[in-house]
Amino acid sequence: MYGIKQDWVLDKRPRHFVLDDYEGGAPRWCAGCGCNSILGAVHKICRDEQLPPEKTLVVSGIGCSSRFPHYMKTYGFHSLHGRPLPVASGARSRRPDLHMFVVTGDGDCCAIGTAHWIHAIRYNMKMTVMLFDNNVYGLTKKQSSPTSKQGNTTNTHPFGAPLPPLNPLSVTLGITNASFVAQTVDWNPAHLYATLLRAHRHDGLSFVRIVQRCPHYMAGYWDSIQHQPEAHLVLRDEVGVPVDDAVARSYGNHLDHDPHDLAAAKELVLREDVLPIGLLYLNENAARYDEWTARGMGMSPADKLAGLQAELDRMSI
Length: 317
Ligand SMILES: Cc1ncc(C[n+]2csc(CCOP(=O)(O)OP(=O)(O)O)c2C)c(N)n1
Hints:
Radius of gyration: 22 Å
Low-confidence stretches: none
Bound molecules: thiamine diphosphate
Structural class: alpha/beta
CATH topology: Rossmann fold
Distance between the termini: 63 Å
Number of strands: 11
Number of helices: 11
Largest sheet: 9 strands, mixed
Mean pLDDT: 96
Helix content: 25-40%
Strand content: 15-25%
Number of domains: 1
Strand order of the largest sheet: 2-1-3-4-8-7-11-9-10
CATH architecture: 3-Layer(aba) Sandwich
Shape: globular
Protein backbone atom coordinates (compact mmCIF):
# COMPACT_ATOMS: atom_id res chain seq x y z
CA MET A 1 0.00 0.00 0.00
CA TYR A 2 1.19 3.48 -0.91
CA GLY A 3 0.93 6.67 1.16
CA ILE A 4 2.09 7.71 4.58
CA LYS A 5 1.54 5.22 7.35
CA GLN A 6 -0.93 6.30 10.02
CA ASP A 7 1.53 5.75 12.85
CA TRP A 8 4.41 7.56 11.07
CA VAL A 9 6.13 10.16 13.25
CA LEU A 10 8.60 12.80 12.19
CA ASP A 11 11.92 12.04 13.81
CA LYS A 12 13.30 15.53 14.48
CA ARG A 13 16.88 15.06 15.55
CA PRO A 14 18.61 17.77 17.55
CA ARG A 15 20.91 19.72 15.23
CA HIS A 16 24.45 20.59 16.13
CA PHE A 17 26.42 22.89 13.86
CA VAL A 18 30.17 22.76 13.36
CA LEU A 19 32.45 25.28 11.61
CA ASP A 20 32.07 23.44 8.34
CA ASP A 21 28.36 24.30 8.34
CA TYR A 22 29.25 27.99 7.91
CA GLU A 23 32.37 27.86 5.73
CA GLY A 24 31.56 28.72 2.11
CA GLY A 25 33.98 28.95 -0.81
CA ALA A 26 37.74 29.37 -0.32
CA PRO A 27 38.45 33.08 0.27
CA ARG A 28 40.23 34.91 -2.56
CA TRP A 29 41.58 37.65 -0.33
CA CYS A 30 45.35 38.30 -0.22
CA ALA A 31 47.44 36.47 2.38
CA GLY A 32 47.59 38.65 5.48
CA CYS A 33 44.45 40.63 4.56
CA GLY A 34 42.47 41.46 7.70
CA CYS A 35 39.30 40.17 6.03
CA ASN A 36 40.54 36.61 6.67
CA SER A 37 40.62 36.97 10.44
CA ILE A 38 37.24 38.72 10.53
CA LEU A 39 35.73 35.87 8.50
CA GLY A 40 37.21 33.37 10.97
CA ALA A 41 35.68 35.26 13.90
CA VAL A 42 32.22 35.32 12.28
CA HIS A 43 32.40 31.59 11.48
CA LYS A 44 33.20 30.90 15.14
CA ILE A 45 30.41 33.14 16.42
CA CYS A 46 27.89 31.34 14.20
CA ARG A 47 29.13 27.99 15.54
CA ASP A 48 29.30 29.06 19.19
CA GLU A 49 25.86 30.67 19.07
CA GLN A 50 24.55 27.68 17.05
CA LEU A 51 22.89 29.96 14.49
CA PRO A 52 20.88 27.87 12.02
CA PRO A 53 22.56 28.56 8.63
CA GLU A 54 19.18 28.84 6.93
CA LYS A 55 18.21 31.57 9.42
CA THR A 56 21.41 33.58 8.98
CA LEU A 57 21.84 36.37 6.44
CA VAL A 58 25.04 38.22 5.52
CA VAL A 59 24.59 41.37 3.43
CA SER A 60 27.47 43.28 1.86
CA GLY A 61 28.07 46.16 -0.54
CA ILE A 62 30.88 46.15 -3.12
CA GLY A 63 34.60 45.99 -2.37
CA CYS A 64 37.21 43.37 -1.48
CA SER A 65 35.66 43.05 1.98
CA SER A 66 32.19 42.74 0.47
CA ARG A 67 33.07 39.36 -1.05
CA PHE A 68 32.37 38.08 2.47
CA PRO A 69 28.93 36.46 1.83
CA HIS A 70 30.55 34.14 -0.77
CA TYR A 71 32.60 32.61 2.01
CA MET A 72 29.64 31.89 4.26
CA LYS A 73 27.41 28.83 3.88
CA THR A 74 24.38 30.88 4.94
CA TYR A 75 22.06 33.17 2.99
CA GLY A 76 23.95 36.08 1.51
CA PHE A 77 23.34 39.20 -0.54
CA HIS A 78 26.32 40.82 -2.34
CA SER A 79 24.49 44.02 -3.13
CA LEU A 80 25.47 47.34 -4.76
CA HIS A 81 28.26 49.72 -3.81
CA GLY A 82 27.15 51.64 -0.71
CA ARG A 83 23.81 49.85 -0.46
CA PRO A 84 24.17 47.00 2.06
CA LEU A 85 22.36 48.91 4.78
CA PRO A 86 19.13 49.64 2.87
CA VAL A 87 19.09 46.02 1.66
CA ALA A 88 19.62 44.75 5.20
CA SER A 89 17.04 47.16 6.64
CA GLY A 90 14.51 45.99 4.08
CA ALA A 91 15.16 42.35 4.95
CA ARG A 92 15.01 43.04 8.66
CA SER A 93 11.79 45.03 8.42
CA ARG A 94 9.85 41.82 7.66
CA ARG A 95 12.18 39.11 8.97
CA PRO A 96 12.59 39.44 12.74
CA ASP A 97 13.59 35.76 12.81
CA LEU A 98 16.91 36.13 10.97
CA HIS A 99 20.40 36.58 12.40
CA MET A 100 21.91 39.36 10.36
CA PHE A 101 25.47 40.53 9.69
CA VAL A 102 26.35 43.45 7.43
CA VAL A 103 29.77 43.86 5.80
CA THR A 104 30.77 47.28 4.52
CA GLY A 105 34.12 48.84 3.58
CA ASP A 106 35.19 52.40 4.42
CA GLY A 107 34.55 53.43 0.82
CA ASP A 108 31.26 51.56 0.77
CA CYS A 109 29.97 52.98 4.07
CA CYS A 110 31.68 56.34 4.52
CA ALA A 111 31.66 57.61 0.92
CA ILE A 112 28.96 56.39 -1.47
CA GLY A 113 26.84 54.87 1.31
CA THR A 114 26.93 57.75 3.78
CA ALA A 115 23.25 58.69 3.65
CA HIS A 116 22.25 55.07 4.24
CA TRP A 117 24.72 54.75 7.11
CA ILE A 118 23.18 57.74 8.92
CA HIS A 119 19.61 56.52 8.56
CA ALA A 120 20.39 52.88 9.37
CA ILE A 121 22.01 53.96 12.64
CA ARG A 122 18.92 56.00 13.47
CA TYR A 123 16.57 53.13 12.51
CA ASN A 124 18.40 50.91 15.00
CA MET A 125 17.13 47.68 13.45
CA LYS A 126 18.67 44.55 14.92
CA MET A 127 21.81 43.65 12.92
CA THR A 128 25.57 43.53 13.40
CA VAL A 129 27.26 46.06 11.14
CA MET A 130 30.99 45.53 10.59
CA LEU A 131 32.92 48.43 9.09
CA PHE A 132 36.06 46.99 7.51
CA ASP A 133 38.19 50.13 7.75
CA ASN A 134 41.47 49.67 5.84
CA ASN A 135 41.60 53.40 4.99
CA VAL A 136 41.68 52.68 1.25
CA TYR A 137 39.61 51.50 -1.70
CA GLY A 138 41.12 48.03 -2.12
CA LEU A 139 39.07 46.49 -4.91
CA THR A 140 39.59 49.41 -7.28
CA LYS A 141 43.33 49.40 -6.57
CA LYS A 142 44.29 52.04 -4.05
CA GLN A 143 42.25 55.22 -4.19
CA SER A 144 41.93 57.47 -1.14
CA SER A 145 38.89 56.77 1.00
CA PRO A 146 37.26 59.32 3.33
CA THR A 147 39.10 57.66 6.24
CA SER A 148 42.58 57.79 4.63
CA LYS A 149 45.06 59.68 6.79
CA GLN A 150 46.10 63.13 5.60
CA GLY A 151 49.27 62.87 3.54
CA ASN A 152 48.79 59.20 2.68
CA THR A 153 49.76 58.59 -0.94
CA THR A 154 47.30 56.78 -3.17
CA ASN A 155 46.55 56.64 -6.88
CA THR A 156 44.03 59.46 -6.57
CA HIS A 157 46.38 61.54 -4.39
CA PRO A 158 49.95 60.68 -5.47
CA PHE A 159 51.25 63.67 -3.48
CA GLY A 160 49.29 62.72 -0.37
CA ALA A 161 45.63 62.93 0.69
CA PRO A 162 45.01 66.65 1.19
CA LEU A 163 42.22 66.51 3.78
CA PRO A 164 42.03 65.29 7.36
CA PRO A 165 40.18 61.96 7.57
CA LEU A 166 36.56 61.52 8.50
CA ASN A 167 36.27 59.70 11.84
CA PRO A 168 33.62 56.99 11.40
CA LEU A 169 33.17 56.62 15.14
CA SER A 170 32.60 60.33 15.84
CA VAL A 171 30.10 60.40 12.99
CA THR A 172 28.23 57.37 14.30
CA LEU A 173 28.20 58.70 17.86
CA GLY A 174 26.71 61.94 16.55
CA ILE A 175 23.71 60.22 14.96
CA THR A 176 20.40 60.34 16.81
CA ASN A 177 19.33 57.01 18.32
CA ALA A 178 22.73 55.24 18.00
CA SER A 179 22.60 52.27 20.34
CA PHE A 180 25.89 50.34 20.16
CA VAL A 181 29.26 51.59 18.95
CA ALA A 182 32.47 49.61 19.35
CA GLN A 183 35.99 49.37 17.95
CA THR A 184 38.37 46.46 17.53
CA VAL A 185 41.37 45.42 15.42
CA ASP A 186 41.76 42.54 12.97
CA TRP A 187 45.14 41.51 14.44
CA ASN A 188 43.91 40.44 17.85
CA PRO A 189 41.60 37.45 17.27
CA ALA A 190 40.51 37.24 20.91
CA HIS A 191 39.39 40.87 21.09
CA LEU A 192 37.90 40.75 17.61
CA TYR A 193 35.83 37.69 18.49
CA ALA A 194 34.70 39.07 21.85
CA THR A 195 33.67 42.39 20.30
CA LEU A 196 31.71 40.84 17.46
CA LEU A 197 30.02 38.36 19.79
CA ARG A 198 28.98 41.17 22.14
CA ALA A 199 27.74 43.11 19.12
CA HIS A 200 25.77 40.13 17.83
CA ARG A 201 24.01 39.77 21.19
CA HIS A 202 22.96 43.43 21.28
CA ASP A 203 19.24 44.07 20.76
CA GLY A 204 19.43 46.71 18.08
CA LEU A 205 21.95 47.86 15.49
CA SER A 206 25.51 47.29 16.63
CA PHE A 207 28.15 49.24 14.73
CA VAL A 208 31.69 47.90 14.98
CA ARG A 209 34.60 49.67 13.35
CA ILE A 210 37.29 47.09 12.69
CA VAL A 211 40.71 48.55 12.00
CA GLN A 212 41.78 46.36 9.11
CA ARG A 213 45.06 45.70 7.33
CA CYS A 214 45.45 45.78 3.56
CA PRO A 215 48.91 44.26 3.10
CA HIS A 216 48.81 44.75 -0.65
CA TYR A 217 48.16 48.49 -0.97
CA MET A 218 48.84 49.69 2.58
CA ALA A 219 51.74 47.50 3.71
CA GLY A 220 53.01 48.63 7.11
CA TYR A 221 50.32 51.31 7.42
CA TRP A 222 49.10 50.14 10.85
CA ASP A 223 52.50 48.92 12.11
CA SER A 224 52.87 51.77 14.61
CA ILE A 225 49.76 50.47 16.37
CA GLN A 226 49.81 46.74 15.63
CA HIS A 227 53.36 46.20 16.87
CA GLN A 228 53.07 48.47 19.89
CA PRO A 229 50.88 46.98 22.61
CA GLU A 230 50.91 50.29 24.50
CA ALA A 231 49.25 51.97 21.52
CA HIS A 232 46.02 50.10 22.36
CA LEU A 233 43.67 51.21 25.14
CA VAL A 234 41.42 48.35 26.27
CA LEU A 235 38.04 49.60 27.49
CA ARG A 236 36.54 47.69 30.39
CA ASP A 237 33.07 47.62 31.86
CA GLU A 238 30.70 44.95 33.16
CA VAL A 239 28.33 45.41 30.21
CA GLY A 240 31.10 46.03 27.69
CA VAL A 241 33.31 43.69 25.70
CA PRO A 242 34.61 40.99 28.07
CA VAL A 243 38.39 41.13 28.43
CA ASP A 244 39.88 37.67 28.73
CA ASP A 245 43.39 36.76 29.92
CA ALA A 246 44.76 36.65 26.38
CA VAL A 247 43.70 40.25 25.70
CA ALA A 248 44.71 41.44 29.16
CA ARG A 249 48.17 39.92 28.68
CA SER A 250 48.60 41.39 25.18
CA TYR A 251 47.78 44.95 26.12
CA GLY A 252 48.76 46.71 29.34
CA ASN A 253 46.74 49.93 28.93
CA HIS A 254 43.26 49.52 30.36
CA LEU A 255 40.54 52.04 31.11
CA ASP A 256 37.32 51.66 33.09
CA HIS A 257 34.83 53.28 30.75
CA ASP A 258 31.08 53.54 31.29
CA PRO A 259 29.64 52.97 27.80
CA HIS A 260 26.47 54.84 28.78
CA ASP A 261 28.50 58.06 28.92
CA LEU A 262 28.14 59.52 25.42
CA ALA A 263 30.32 62.56 26.11
CA ALA A 264 33.17 60.34 27.35
CA ALA A 265 32.80 58.10 24.27
CA LYS A 266 33.00 61.13 21.97
CA GLU A 267 36.20 62.26 23.68
CA LEU A 268 37.72 58.77 23.55
CA VAL A 269 37.32 58.36 19.80
CA LEU A 270 39.24 61.57 19.18
CA ARG A 271 42.34 60.37 21.02
CA GLU A 272 45.36 60.11 18.78
CA ASP A 273 47.87 58.85 21.36
CA VAL A 274 46.10 55.48 21.73
CA LEU A 275 43.52 53.42 19.87
CA PRO A 276 40.58 52.72 22.22
CA ILE A 277 39.22 49.19 21.66
CA GLY A 278 36.05 47.75 23.16
CA LEU A 279 32.54 49.07 23.70
CA LEU A 280 32.48 52.85 23.38
CA TYR A 281 28.78 53.53 23.61
CA LEU A 282 25.64 51.64 24.58
CA ASN A 283 22.01 52.71 24.83
CA GLU A 284 19.78 49.73 25.50
CA ASN A 285 16.68 51.93 25.41
CA ALA A 286 17.05 53.32 21.89
CA ALA A 287 13.83 52.97 19.86
CA ARG A 288 13.81 50.15 17.26
CA TYR A 289 12.25 50.82 13.88
CA ASP A 290 12.12 47.08 13.08
CA GLU A 291 9.64 46.61 15.94
CA TRP A 292 7.41 49.14 14.19
CA THR A 293 7.86 47.79 10.64
CA ALA A 294 7.07 44.25 11.76
CA ARG A 295 3.65 45.26 13.07
CA GLY A 296 0.76 43.41 11.53
CA MET A 297 2.93 40.56 10.33
CA GLY A 298 0.68 38.00 11.96
CA MET A 299 -2.47 39.33 10.24
CA SER A 300 -4.33 36.91 8.00
CA PRO A 301 -4.81 37.85 4.32
CA ALA A 302 -8.53 38.28 5.00
CA ASP A 303 -7.86 40.72 7.86
CA LYS A 304 -5.41 42.65 5.69
CA LEU A 305 -7.98 42.91 2.92
CA ALA A 306 -10.67 44.00 5.36
CA GLY A 307 -8.34 46.69 6.77
CA LEU A 308 -7.57 47.93 3.28
CA GLN A 309 -11.24 47.97 2.39
CA ALA A 310 -12.07 49.95 5.53
CA GLU A 311 -9.43 52.55 4.63
CA LEU A 312 -10.76 52.81 1.06
CA ASP A 313 -14.28 53.25 2.40
CA ARG A 314 -13.06 56.14 4.49
CA MET A 315 -12.02 57.92 1.30
CA SER A 316 -15.31 57.39 -0.54
CA ILE A 317 -17.29 60.56 -1.27
C1 LIG B 1 28.11 52.91 -8.06
C2 LIG B 1 29.53 52.44 -8.05
N1 LIG B 1 30.52 53.34 -7.97
C3 LIG B 1 31.80 52.93 -7.95
C4 LIG B 1 32.10 51.60 -8.01
C5 LIG B 1 33.55 51.15 -8.03
N2 LIG B 1 33.97 50.63 -6.75
C6 LIG B 1 33.86 49.30 -6.49
S1 LIG B 1 34.45 48.91 -4.99
C7 LIG B 1 34.90 50.51 -4.68
C8 LIG B 1 35.57 50.92 -3.40
C9 LIG B 1 35.85 49.81 -2.46
O1 LIG B 1 36.48 50.29 -1.32
P1 LIG B 1 35.98 49.86 0.13
O2 LIG B 1 34.52 50.04 0.26
O3 LIG B 1 36.80 50.63 1.11
O4 LIG B 1 36.25 48.31 0.19
P2 LIG B 1 37.60 47.46 0.12
O5 LIG B 1 37.77 47.05 -1.33
O6 LIG B 1 38.75 48.31 0.58
O7 LIG B 1 37.33 46.30 1.00
C10 LIG B 1 34.55 51.33 -5.76
C11 LIG B 1 34.80 52.79 -5.81
C12 LIG B 1 31.03 50.68 -8.09
N3 LIG B 1 31.23 49.36 -8.12
N4 LIG B 1 29.77 51.13 -8.09
